[in-house]
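dumping this here before i forget
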Amino acid sequence: MKQKEFNIPFSGLKQGKHNFNYQIENTFFDSFGYDEFNATNINLDVVLHKTSTMMEVDMEASGTVNVDCDITSEPYDQAISGDLHLIVKFGEEYNDENDEILILPHNEHQLNIAQYVYEMLVLAVPQKRIHPGIEDGTLKSEVLDRLKELQPKEKRLDKKESDPRWDELKKLLTDK
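structure:
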């Protein structure tokens, strides 16, 4: 689903730099069917540099996403930031096969950046999401309490006695 608010009508813009600012909420990700985030608060700054033959789009995003911890399933705010540089050229037909170069048809008059913003923000979230309270020990959770209950009580000492069959095999290693 293309989001209309992310359409940049470049045909009426003069040559030079143009700034656009977006506030991204959870409804943006819902429109892509992505439900990993509980809540989002992301500020996106877009700079479009238009020249006579091409355009450059620089996107910078920063903010927080509320996600569930992979270990405890406790929700927490994860700070994210991301940037993307995109070159837009004009050609015979639409082509987005290259990650850094987008080719638009000559008769196109607007650019939709929603897909690029979506991919940039989803990839900005760490692959393993760990609540900061786990690392510094301040998180109090039922899951952590239960894990502490179930951890082994006594430490096993390594047995000094070994199986005589292995001793014979170890001799082969040293007999070289």
